[in-house]
Amino acid sequence: MTDSYVCPHCGHIEERPYRVRLIVLTCPDCGENGRFIHRSLADRLDEVPEPQRPEDWEEMPLDDRLRYAIREELLDISFTGPI
Fold it and tell me: Which among 58, 35, 27 is positioned nearest to 45, based on CA atoms?
């Protein structure tokens, strides 16, 4: 069984045989280096209410969106417990 990780820049999906919150990779599609976040976390970004998103939300890389949502307490995500 594999888990999916999403490129923060272009949305490319990488499969890995392990389950962690994020992995640092260079994307084979866009060539950017970044924090690929677990697909389940990427999907949770849709839970952030639109009125609470910054103006540039759609342009922000996924990992920046996730950090913003956690910092602003818009998502409750534990980095020590299960995903």
Answer: 58
Q: What are the DSSP calls for the chain, one per residue?
A: --EEEE-TTT--EEEESS--SEEEEE-TTT--EEEEEEHHHHHHGGGS-GGGS-TTGGGS-HHHHHHHHHHTTSS---SSS--
Summarize pLDDT for 34-57 with one digit per residue, the tens: 999 999 999 999 999 999 999 999
Is the CA virtual torsion 17, 4, 26, 45 positive or negative?
negative
Amino acid identity of residue 50, one-letter, is E
The model's pTM is 0.87
**CA angle, residues 24, 28, 33, in degrees to nearest 5:** 35
- Collect all residues with Cβ–Cβ distance below 8 Å to 32 and sequence separation of at least 6: 7, 8, 9, 10, 26
Q: Where are the domains of the chain?
A: 3-71
